[in-house]
Amino acid sequence: MASPDPTEPPADHELGSFSDTPPWTIERDQLTWLPPLARVRREVRAEIPRLTRPHWIPPVRRVTTVTRHLGWAVGRWYVGKRRTGGSISRADLSRRLRIAAEALGPTYIKLAQIISSGEGLFPEELVAETKKCRDQVPPEPWDEIRAVVEAELGTPIHELFSHFDTEPLAAASIAQVHRATLHTGEDVVVKVQRPSVAFRVKEDLRVMAWLAPKLIGRIPVSALANPPALVELFAETISEELDFRLEAENMLDVAASFAELGQRDYVIPRPHPQLVTPRVLVMERLDGFKFDDVAGMKGAGVDTVQVVRTGMIGFMEGALIHGIFHGDLHGGNLFVMPDGRTALLDFGITGRLDDFKRNAFLRLLMSGTSNDPIGQLAAFRDLGALPPDTDLEAVARDLGLDSPEVFDPTKVDGDALVAEIQRVIKALLGYGAKIPKELMLFTKNLMFVDGAIATLAPDLDILEEIAHITMHFATTHGEKIAAQIGMAPDAWEFDMEGVKAGFGISDDVDRLTYRDLQQRRETIRKRLEGRSLQ
Q1: 346: left (phi over 0), alpha (psi -120 to 50) or beta
Q2: What pLDDT digit, counting tens, does each position of 318-333 carry?
Q3: 365 within 8 A of 313, measured Cβ to Cβ
Q4: Catalytic residue among 328, 346, 382, 450
Q5: Cα–Cα distance between 95 and 220 in angstroms, integer?
Q6: CA-CA distance, 143 to 145, in Å (whole number)?
Q7: Whole-number Å distance between alpha carbons of 163 and 212
Q8: Cβ-contact 380, 361 below 8 angstroms
Q9: Residue 344: in which H helix or E strand, if any?
Q10: Do 147 and 278 meet the contact criterion of CB atoms below 8 Å apart?
Q11: 162-180 pLDDT, tens per residue?
Q12: Known catalytic residue at 408
């Protein structure tokens, strides 16, 4: 293949935010695997109700297996390190649960991966342990991987690849990836689905669908999370992950949204024009620094603060302006290239918003930064977090959102803090609140961004960045947003006092770094430690 002219943009530059040195160029009408995907998406979505419909009798053998592994993990902890208490006890239980998840296979590994993105939400010991499930899952034997590749591509490996690493670059829940080189000279990454994973996932979904309704109302937090909706979300995302053609299309669509937004600080690998099947995905190979390699980035002259800023704006712009975003951000799914751009990988879970929900997210952003609690509640209602007939003013009154006083959780004792949390949860449950699936994906990504700030820019002033991002949206997309949400262009006004109230800090606080925020969270954690929210 002839080397491209480095002074000219790639031929597919307008089609997506791709690398500057393409191993091949994308022409959508030449992609042999693309035409049937609209039908495939419809079929996958149509299967979700059947997969998530609870049955009277679950798969007994699988329930027994799950109970044995999880029971053994909890039992060994209970008679051992539980008595030690504190971080040592939590670390031991986390390790045992992670091992049990790996033994149970793809579905439970995927659950662990979701937990691993929940820094600040789950115990830090559990988050640290489940991070090992991102790319340290035991790989499949090489002979089985080779069999999948050859069956999917319809030809022996040696006829397509001049080199194929038998050791995986990474191994996760649904698939593992291998470095390879095509006979035509391009360096590629080959994502291969684990054998029999589809059968195991669908069996586990039947177990979860049977269990989820039994959790409703048992625990306030689980009721708010809506276990059946969680199972539905999990079924939808993991089912789409089982067809790599859908992932390849997600790559193209996200890359196209970034290109249209002018977001060239993101790079999406190109899927191969022919070598994409339901269980094998050949894509362009990109290289860079792991997301936590701060020393390596700074040594290469990468501005880590700018990486964070690009990440925040790009993620939000894709979701709010184009209604599409990477739905599973974590450190194993991206890296920073030597030129400071961020490469996004693994598009198995991709959030897609219809116009109605995208509009609700826009209104949530605008009302959240203009101190409009009724507007925020209306946006949450339209996202599905509250029933359509909810009395929003009553909710605002019951939650204290209409009060001029700021509740600072770091300035009350543990009992008062627990009482306030219980009061809020009880009020929300009384109104039938739940966490809709699109909001769950979006929130999970925000938690990753939160952790990215801690790693790459701990001294970043969060208040200043919120103002910067908000003004970016107002100046870059203001007229478009105003037209879509039915607001006069000059009707919105940024309210820093309201933003501060959202963090539980008084108006006289001028600066809030991530270090400050971590200290506040640690204070809250200590005051809640040992107290029950039931």
Answers
A1: left
A2: 888 999 998 888 777 8
A3: no
A4: 328
A5: 26
A6: 5
A7: 46
A8: no
A9: strand 342-344
A10: no
A11: 999 999 998 888 899 999 9
A12: no
